[in-house]
Amino acid sequence: MAQGPSCASELHYYRALDHANAGFATGTYHLKDDLHLATPPPHPSEAPVVNPNPLATVPTPPTSGVKLSLVSVGQRNKLPVFTSKEKVTAPPFADGNPALAAIPTKDGLKRRKPKNNIIKSSSSFVSRVITHEASSKRLNDRNPDGLFAFANINRAFQWLDLSSKNKEEPLAKILFTKAHMLTHDINELTKSSSHIDIAMGSSAGDIIWYEPISQKYARINKNGVVSNSPVTHIKWIPGSENMFMAAHANGQLVVYDKEKEDALFTPEISNHSAEAMKASSRLPLQVLKSVNSRNQKTNPVALWKLANQKISQFAFSPDQRHLAVVLEDGSLRVMDYLKEEVLDIFRSYYGGLICVCWSPDGKYIVTGGQDDLVTIWSFPERKIVARCQGHNSWVSTVAFDPWRCDERTYRFGSVGDDCRLLLWDFSVGMLHRPRAHQASARQRTSMIASNTQHFNRHRADSASNRMRSDSQRTADTYNDYDSAVRHPVEPRARTALLPPIMSKIVGDDPICWLGFQEDSIMTSSLEGHIRTWDRPREGINDSYNGNTSSPAISTSAAGSGSGIADSAMGSL
Amino acid sequence: MGSFLRSLRRDGPPTPSVGATPAKKEPPVPPVTPLEKMLQDMGAIREDGSDKFFGMENYGNTCYCNSILQCLYYSVPFREAVVNYPTRTPIESLEAALANTLRYQNFAANLEAEALAEKQKAANAQRPGAPPNQPQKPEDKDSPEYKKKMALQTLPLLETKNNATSYGMSESLFTSLKDLFESVVASQSRIGIIRPQHFLDVLRREHEMFRTAMHQDAHEFLNLLLNEVVANVEAEASKQPEPERSLPPAESADSTELSGSSGSKTPNTTRWVHELFEGTLTSETQCLTCEKVSQRDEVFLDLSVDLEQHSSVTSCLRKFSAEEMLCERNKFHCDNCGGLQEAEKRMKIKRLPRILALHLKRFKYTEDLQRLQKLFHRVVYPYHLRLFNTTDDAEDPDRLYELYAVVVHIGGGPYHGHYVAIIKTQDRGWLLFDDEMVEPVDKNYVRNFFGDRPGLACAYVLFYQETTLEAVMKEQEQENMDLNTSVADINDSTLKQNGYPLSPGLAHVHSASQIPSPSEPARFSNLQRAPTAPPLFPHPEHADSESSPADPSTTASATPPVPPIPDIHSLPLSPKKSDSHFKKERAKEEKERKANEKEKEKQRRRDQEARIREQRREDAEIRAALEASKASKAEEDRRHSPDDTKKSSHGLSRLKRGSKSFSHRLGKDKENRVSSSSHSATPIAEHPPSRNGASESQQQLPNGQSPGSHGLHTRHTGLDEERDTLKDPKHDRSGHHGKWRSFSLKKKSFSILS
Hints:
Chain A: Belongs to the WD repeat creC family. Chain A: It comes from Aspergillus oryzae (strain ATCC 42149 / RIB 40) (Yellow koji mold). Chain A: Interacts with creB. The structure holds two protein chains of two kinds. Chain A is mainly beta. Chain A is 10% helix and 35% strand. Chain A has two domains: 1-35 and 321-433 and 478-536, Methylamine Dehydrogenase, Chain H (7 Propeller), CATH 2.130.10.10; 62-81 and 110-304, Methylamine Dehydrogenase, Chain H (7 Propeller). Residues 1-7, 16-24, 436-480 and 539-572 of chain A have low confidence and may be disordered. By secondary structure, chain B is an alpha+beta fold. Chain B has a domain at 34-116 and 143-237. Chain B is 43% helix and 15% strand. In chain B, α11 (218-239) packs across α21 and α19 runs antiparallel to α20. In chain B, 47% of the residues are buried. At the A-B interface, α2 of A face β8, β17, β18 and α15 of B.
């Protein structure tokens, strides 16, 4: 597929509906918007970014491309049609620890804001804050259902109103001195038109709790007092008003409480000898401070060490009980984070894993990594389902499209360093395994066994895997806690291969974030391009009619990607 | 021995307390380099050379050679093979030699420079962490130039001498490579600078294109070196049964041991380069008319992959194997339907090499500019790799590779610039080898050369070696552990216990002064492997130096007389290649000549144009230099082109072409588009059995080679023949346009320009 570097303004996809309907539904996403954030110049105190010596061995601080946190503070329910049928039954995190019982808020419903005003801050961490001169007017006039977007770029952090006419002008822009914000998240539970809780993690390890409407902030893990390595990913714990989880580049997962003060962290483990530390470092999870610890006056609430490797990303399951963590060492670790234990360890085909997400019903986990693959794992069956081949470089973000998922078929998307956006459809019945002598088979006819069979087999599988992991371990006293099942890497010949339904170059620079909205797909890139692609106006059940009604189609029908798209082209 | 004692000073703080160290010349101690700092906790020196970190002197644009040599040295199986083939020089004789060739610096002479350095250090210390933009022109202490200068002034210098006679071989590129490796392995200093002068002499003597002081292509050099090693080794093997062979039976015992313990398919001791670097590509061509699939195997020593902007090595490899349509001017001659037909072709890997050398084709010939351009595409490479493009029947198609070395090209174009190597060492992490300078670097540093960073530095050749998931996981556990925790200690103690690596001879000479802990030296004369290293290669350990009789040339080997150059080399060459080649050439000549000449004419015209275009380049200096070399090379080409088809007796030119065609065969010239018939028209039987194979079996049988392995042996002979027949197709090519064309063009213009 030779494709020019120029990005098209439409995305076409072809979708296999199901077996009954042999045809392919098609659709076109139109580029609605391309917002380009300016990269701020380096802070005067910073060393010049460009070192004249390309071989300079001084380590460069981590940075990341633009990532977005989107929030709508309106009342309208924008949830997709298809979500998990089962109610969230998991108890909230830290339920059993009275030391962490929620303190009844004295101010009633009023949210607590952080202490310090960021605009007047004299902190050496914050360089300056630029607010829009009419920001309060803009806030009052706007449609409450409109989207706010928070975006990091280099050392800047911007607050954008995507529903505004002049959305390129941020409502506020924070410039930090040296640290780059690498990740941020909005607390969905506490958001309102007068309050938004944002947690953001920086390359210095410091975490900022920021409330944009009042422009207040607080600094957590100040100067890395709890964990002094960069924050690679941050998420509010589902159902919690105050607690969020941060992944650090040193392999630690830390739960912080925005209301608590920092304290110098010392591991709370019984056997503290170096030898014991070393032995326990083989475990998939070292609880250096348990959520059940009585000592909860200060941060951290909990601190787990997963590995000596960078944690790339993690994701909470929709049932709020499990956590999928991906690491630079190529492992996907599925945790029961309420019980603080690792259940399963899967490995990438090769190379580090970069991103992870759950299907809306919690049945599947999807990862992307340095093997250029998107991999689907079945959570209940605890096994690999398929490898999705189509990216030409590393995969930076994967996300399900909950508006295009139902009980049988799932739609997800992925973006990567190849500047591409890929869309994938899969339904379990349609996956095929490559047959030994027909690797190029594009027919999607053969089927794999039904779910129940898999489930039975999985038991046997995991039992044998367990034995394998037992034999791997060195004889020491730490066996008792290591209940994690280590799954071997499945050979290529025994794993289903899934082609994308669409593959499209959407920019000139690596794409680092992807989000699905009800009416659009959004991507953001390394150099600050935020693109919005309108969904096809027709529903997913319309097929060809929708196409022909759109004048854009005929001009760029050839723009679609590889794999199944080719055969679809033939059928058109 | 005083010189050896003085080496202790270089070993850093843990050792200088050793009583024997004279306390002289301590004041002008140069600042501890990052490398020395890192090596402070090292235990005793190991015998396998894995803990030696030598820079290499640059004799003016020889960085292409230095970076490749370093990459090869740190391939454990390759180093061991070079050191052990045909036999390992007893350490005593090496030491005797080294006593003369390892030269420690006269610190007093460098006093002044160091004093200056100290002063500057003081000046710099006033502004710690200050950006290097201060206008302090004279000498930037962080600059590589300064570091190299300091290294040259302070580190021990290691010269190599031709030791070929002690290997029982005549001098060749292989023996001088072995000289280099053995010297470093046997050196009593852990760090230093090796001077590959002798190696370069041999290289330049035999290969005209390297004689200029011009910038050379590192990949091309790698390919040439590997081919040359193959040729040298095979040539020696074929002439070994000669009566005047001076080597005692110990050598043959060693070679049987080699074949026995290597445990791989071939008992042929000369095939170790093949076993490491060689893989097999299968090109499957399906005629779209009759749908018949024809297959053809080719061997490769490295893979050259085309690059795309914003892609990964994985993707480049997949593209490499992507289906290609042979149509229009590029049709496929189908045996089945007889005639040129449209066809679909794909290249897949049938046998995976144990070391995968990946050449990223950053220098691309652009039609509109008529010259090579460097591509600054961002191409990411993971630390681990598996190959997607294997055939269905490939053995171990999911083989896991780990990245162990990266050759980086720095510069804006193909005709100038600098090469460095970043290499993962056995247990000291990643190191940057920049000619004389060796510096430890962070693992993340390896990722600075995807091609998108300012500074023009891009990965150019990637070395992946096979590994296992278990080894990877074990290594990952060790990574990023605080070095001051128990891990380092444990490592150290294990090193001291079972890693006491000194062979008897070595131990009694130096142990008293060298080793801080006077523990009883363990008798491990076999090679050590670091515990973290994957079990890469069931490689033959070298014959016990106790059991093997003393080398006949222990002392003589130190400074053997340089043999008269041209004769010696042309003699030992195996006649196999030339003969079969010659015959084949003759047989094919008529058929090929037309196509061949047409192609050549075309190339020449293109080159001519390229040259004309080149003249317009702004860069006057480079242009001038280029012109000179181009002119000479073009002339040489013109001179040689008639030879190409007719003459094959002159040693030098034949050798050269052989390597070239080899390199063509090895993964570059992919397809025999029009000649499937001509190919099948040269059945294997037409070729006489390779003399190489025959002579080898002669050599092996007296040494107790079993008939069974002899059978295997002949199988390989057959394979050789097959490869010989495969050599031809390139001559059949006549101006098709395909994805491989740019490469052959590249090759062409490269040899013209360099």
